[in-house]
Design goal:
single chain; about 170 residues; mainly beta; 6-stranded antiparallel β-sheet; 1 helix; about 45% strand
């Protein structure tokens, strides 16, 4: 993909929404919109940002729209997961895959749920997060600073430095 913007969309239908969250990062930068309302932007492709979008989701058709800015020649990557829960329902996940639609051309109202994206192409799946470039295993969850999340009831205490420990392998 040349330097420039690439546009991604995912539409889905919900009943009464109790919870909604978007986990997202992009190579190189993104602007996230839900049902036509701007949510956030990010520019660190190694950090998975987490956004609460509960108040922006509605009963009926919803759309997640993402403009990805590709600042370097090469792949314009997006990794996203939309997590929703309907009242008295179970959690559902809409991860970025080939059901998302993509275009290199911006259209009027492309961030709205009633926009017709039938002529847009299915997004190309490059592979699973953690095993696929450009990310490899470098992505961390925002505000966690690590690939592992520790429950708030526990604390991690460093007993030795990396140099003192050397290589450790648990089997």
């Amino acid at each position: 993909v040349p330097v420039g913007d690439v546009f991604f969309r995912k539409t889905f239908t919900l009943g009464n929404v109790e919870f909604g969250q978007v986990h997202i990062c992009a190579d190189n930068q993104y602007e996230l919109t839900v049902n036509g309302r701007r949510v956030a932007s990010g520019a660190d492709w190694r950090k998975m940002d987490v956004h609460d979008v509960t108040e922006l989701l509605k009963s009926g058709t919803n759309v997640i729209a993402v403009r990805v800015g590709n600042t370097d020649e090469g792949a314009a990557g997006l990794v996203a997961r939309v997590i929703t829960k309907e009242t008295a329902g179970t959690f559902e996940s809409f991860s970025s895959d080939d059901t998302w639609r993509t275009s290199v051309k911006q259209f009027a109202d492309w961030q709205r749920s009633n926009f017709r994206d039938a002529e847009w192409l299915p997004a190309e799946v490059l592979g699973p997060l953690g095993a696929t470039l450009p990310w490899g295993d470098e992505v961390v969850i925002a505000d966690e600073g690590a690939r592992f999340v520790v429950d708030k009831e526990f604390a991690i205490e460093r007993l030795t430095t990396d140099e003192q420990t050397g290589s450790q392998v648990a089997m």
